[in-house]
Specification:
mainly alpha; two-stranded antiparallel ribbon; 22 helices; 59% helix
Length: 704
């Protein structure tokens, strides 16, 4: 007699007359991981306290002079000296600046940046000019000292150039006259040693700031646009919220019609986008400069420039056309499965209708995530500013002590100064040699890892809570009488009381994969300049593999939390049961579940599209009715993008509840098919609409 072969993906669920939904009599699961998570969180709090006691955010806020003092810090002698002045800005052009992030020149705090061109030799001959010049010199400078003595001791700069403050640092006020770079309206300047130099020599010292200056101007314009349009942006987001709520209410009563209307509207909205792009593309034909390519144009801070070239609209049109074709093809091939998906969405609408407080749960998740993000950000800032000032020897000529650590208090009388007369002891960076400073990088890594773990834990808690609430709806024989009075709160209590360990276990696995992906991105950034093609190929393959692995783990975790919420088993057992259940119904999973996800995505796309089109016509002034109402903006795309992104987040918040409901009902629906057969003793608990689509029906009860 041959042994009966064991099913590849486990035995189907057996009928259990006592099973009525989420198990009430359950015990704690994954206790070891729960204890580990609690210890890790306590350690995270300890790291935060340690960082707050050692860190000093002023190092980020205030510029630091050559003695490590903060410019403009309240309650110090430098309170009124808010700007940082460089003795010789041309030394900032040294390649060493890119390695050490510090110019090898004296830096000091001043009240105002220099407003006129002047050399020390010239200022020395006039008392008034010398008094002005001393504002940019170290303390103790007098006219009794000779110019060579002042310069040899590094007490004053050899020259002053007209400068303007940027990020509280004095940079030369360079101009352009007749295509020639000027400073103080002159193309040449005296460097203080009697040599005349071109103004363009100053460019290398400040060129690293030009991109930042342009970015600053862009940020200021964007900020001004927000101040002019913030209330209209809020109105747009409120409209998005109302449309999302209306959409969910209509789904409750008109799920079938709404899905088909939604599909039609999405196709029409994208179709209009293609038409609009074509009209803009055709309208620019023949315009001067419209045939310039995006590559030739390069990066521009004024993004409206890109809308004046034909290639931009052609790219938009091609992208929208591809999206349109893909959606239409998917609808053609999946038209039969859409009917089952509609029935599932109808049932999800009823479930959400019976558990209305579930729509507010994303707000709770948002608050918890905001706390986690804020704690991580504050701790990261304090950790990164908890170093001590390190001073090093900077020199212009060869010196054996170059870049050696030094003490500025007694450097002028030290042997290093005697051996290298032209050297200076300047503030280099923040660091330290204590045990705390040696392990600072480890603490930063711990901060990032715990951020991922806590954030994933919060997300997992939301998934398990909603899964438990919606599972209690599905398995209730008489709805809503057999449901708990407060299904969301009941499920939240069970999740925290019994399954904190399972939540921590699942989120730990996901966090490890995410931290590996972060390390791979870091390595990729470091190897960008490398020529090793094989290393780049291997790294690219690893990034792709871990991206796929993260997606799979998220999918597995989500379904495992549903099984934990229903049966109260540990994470591994629940993950195995969920995986086997899905594998036993592979065709339904591959098609039906993804079709519902696709339909919900179309819903989000529709809401974003409607609000986005309205925002475009309003803020761009294309409609005459809105010309006087719309605010005057530098970039009308600023409020439009803000409204579009905000609308997507709002729609995603509402539809994430729907998605979790659909996933939970889908697993329950698969179990229902395995547990029951439609007989009077084992009737299906799925709704009648779903039974009709699947050609399933419950047999009539026998006469009593």
């Amino acid at each position: 007699m041959e042994l009966e072969e064991k099913p590849k993906y486990g035995e189907p669920r057996k009928y259990d007359p006592t099973f009525k939904g989420p198990i009430q009599n359950r015990g704690c699961t994954d206790i070891v991981c729960c204890i580990l998570f609690i210890i890790a969180v306590l350690g995270y709090i300890a790291v935060g306290i340690l960082a707050w006691s050692q860190g000093d955010p002023r190092k980020v806020i205030y510029p630091t002079d050559s003695r490590g003092q903060f410019c403009g810090q309240a309650g110090t002698p430098l309170e009124n000296k808010r700007q940082l002045f460089y003795f010789n800005i041309m030394k900032c052009a040294s390649p060493m600046v890119l390695l050490e992030f510090q110019c090898p020149t004296t830096q000091m705090c001043v009240e105002k940046c220099p407003e006129k061109f002047m050399t020390l030799l010239k200022a020395y001959t006039n008392q008034k000019d010398f008094d002005y010049y001393k504002n940019f010199c170290k303390d103790g400078v007098t006219r009794t000292m000779g110019v060579p003595e002042i310069l040899s001791q590094g007490l004053c700069p050899a020259m002053l150039t007209p400068s303007k403050p940027f990020t509280r640092r004095c940079f030369p006020a360079l101009g352009l006259k007749g295509g020639v770079i000027t400073v103080g309206n002159d193309s040449k300047f005296d460097d203080g040693t009697g040599n005349m130099r071109d103004a363009k020599d100053l460019v290398d010292g400040v060129k690293n700031a030009t991109v930042v200056i342009e970015a600053r101007q862009l940020v200021m314009k964007i900020f001004e646009d927000y101040t002019q349009s913030w209330y209209w942006i809020l109105i747009g987001l409120v409209i998005a919220m109302l449309i999302s709520l209306l959409f969910i209410v209509l789904l409750r009563f008109l799920a079938g019609i709404m899905v088909w209307v939604m599909i039609a509207l999405v196709i029409l909205v994208i179709g209009y986008g293609i038409f609009h792009c074509y009209m803009e593309y055709a309208a620019l034909k023949g315009d001067a400069g419209s045939n310039v390519t995006i590559q030739e144009l390069g990066f521009q801070t004024d993004f409206t420039v890109y809308l004046q070239i034909r290639q931009t609209w052609l790219a938009f049109m091609i992208i929208l056309a591809i999206v349109e074709v893909v959606i239409i093809l998917l609808l053609i091939f999946l038209r039969k499965r859409i009917l089952i998906a509609i029935a599932l969405i109808k049932e999800a609408s009823r479930a959400v209708g019976h558990v209305m407080c579930s729509l507010l749960y994303p707000l709770f998740t948002f608050v918890l995530l905001a706390v986690v993000i804020a704690y991580w950000a504050v701790t990261a800032v304090f950790l990164s500013t908890s170093n001590e000032p390190i001073y090093k020897v900077f020199n212009e000529t060869a010196c054996e002590h170059s870049r050696t650590t030094c003490d500025p208090a007694n450097y002028s009388t030290s042997s290093m100064k005697a051996q290298c007369p032209d050297s200076e002891c300047l503030f280099a960076f923040y660091g330290g040699e204590t045990v705390y400073h040696k392990y600072l990088i480890g603490l930063q890594f711990y901060n990032v890892f715990l951020f991922f773990w806590c954030a994933n834990f919060v997300t997992a808690l939301g998934q398990m809570t909603l899964a438990g609430a919606f599972a209690s709806y599905y398995w209730a024989f008489v709805k809503p009488d057999d449901m708990p009075a407060f299904p969301v709160f009941s499920s939240l209590g069970r999740s925290l009381r019994y399954h904190t360990g399972s939540l921590a276990f699942g989120s730990l696995i996901l966090s490890i994969i995410q931290i590996i992906r972060v390390l791979l991105e870091y390595l990729d950034h470091k190897l960008k300049g490398a020529q090793n093609k094989f290393a780049k190929f291997v790294l690219c393959c690893l990034k792709c593999c871990f991206w796929c692995l993260e997606k799979f783990i998220k999918f597995l975790n989500r379904n495992a939390y549903i099984m934990v919420a229903i049966y109260g088993k540990n994470f591994c057992t629940s993950a195995k049961d969920a995986f086997f259940l899905l594998m036993r119904n592979m065709i339904r999973v591959a098609v039906l579940d993804k079709v519902t996800d696709f339909l919900l995505f179309l819903g989000k796309l529709l809401i974003v599209g409607l609000v986005g089109v309205f925002a475009f016509f309003f803020f761009s002034g294309r409609v005459k009715a809105f010309e006087d109402t719309a605010p005057n903006l530098h970039y009308y795309w600023v409020p439009i993008l803000t409204v579009i992104i905000g609308s997507y987040l709002i729609a995603h918040g509402f539809f994430s509840v729907y998605a979790m409901c659909v996933d939970t009902l889908f697993l329950c629906f698969l179990e229902d098919l395995e547990r029951n057969d439609g007989s009077a003793e084992r009737p299906y608990l799925m709704p009648e609409s779903l039974r009709k689509v699947l050609n399933k029906k419950n047999k009539a009860e026998p006469d009593q």
